[in-house]
Amino acid sequence: MGDDAVRVDGLTVRYRGASADAVSGITFAVSAGEVFGFLGPSGAGKSTVQNVLTRLLRRYRGSVRVLGRPLPDWGRDYHERIGVGFELPAAFGRMTARENLDVFASFYGVPTADPGRLLARLGLADAADRRVGTFSKGMRMRLNLARALVNRPSLLFLDEPTSGQDPVRAGAMREVIRSEAERGAAVFLTTHDMRTADELCDRVAFVAGGRIVAVDTPQGFKRRHGRPGLVAEYDGEDGRPRRRVFSASGADAGELAALVRSGRLTALHSREAALDEVFAEVTEVRL
């Protein structure tokens, strides 16, 4: 990961007529080459922050720097540098997928990706010349991501990018997003899919009540909110799989050592919390 692509200090937003701030004093940074998850319950302020960063919302207090400049100093050239893929896909239904990407590519004054290769990366090569109006939701979402990548953005905003995908397609989309970060793009990701957040994000910020309540790596969160001890998975003497929790005190260390020597141990791991459990705990939302 490189220098900060996004730096937000004390961001505060209050909508006209509201009695309270939608976002109150939020501070964070996103590095180039980082996938940064911005997670929280509905109404937490995620969309407000995203709208500020994409310049859909320009009334705010605080400091926002993006790609080396204060956000207000950017002109129309800002949208040459960013890619946006929101949860509700937007495309021309009477055009083919290839024609859609050709049209969107024509909006930019910078070199753009080859539509055919981009569609192939997202599993749409066979549907490249089909009208988008015939696409399923999952196919539309993949086309939506392709559209967000067409200008090779330095900063990518994604909202529920794997929505509507089967597990295989979702995994393939996560690989594409990760490859964009490895290319050097900063990725600002909002999602309620904790598996996507867990597997994709370098760091996660949990948001509640218009504030960031915690920031850490997914692994750091799971360790911090897990319970002491080790979970052993092994083959029982009858050949059936077994599972046992060994205490952190080491009182049953001899039994664990005997199990290891037996050759029947198949897995040994700490009692980490799942990321959805962390989400519920730190944002105080009951699932």
Q: What's the short version?
A:
It contains 10 helices and 13 strands. The chain is α/β, with parallel strands linked by helices and 287 residues long.
Report on the architecture of this protein.
With 287 residues, this protein is of the alpha/beta class. Helices cover 32% and strands 28% of the residues. It is built from ten helices and 13 strands. It has helices at residues 46-53, 78-81, 97-105, 115-121, 137-149, 167-183, 194-200, 218-224, 253-262, 275-283; strands spanning 4-13, 23-31, 35-39, 61-66, 69-70, 82-85, 155-159, 186-190, 203-208, 211-216, 227-235, 241-246, 265-271. The strands form three sheets. The protein has a six-stranded mixed beta sheet with strand order 6-7-8-3-9-10. Strands 2-1-4-5 form a four-stranded antiparallel beta sheet, covered by helices on one side. Strands 12-11-13 form a three-stranded antiparallel beta sheet, with helices on one face.
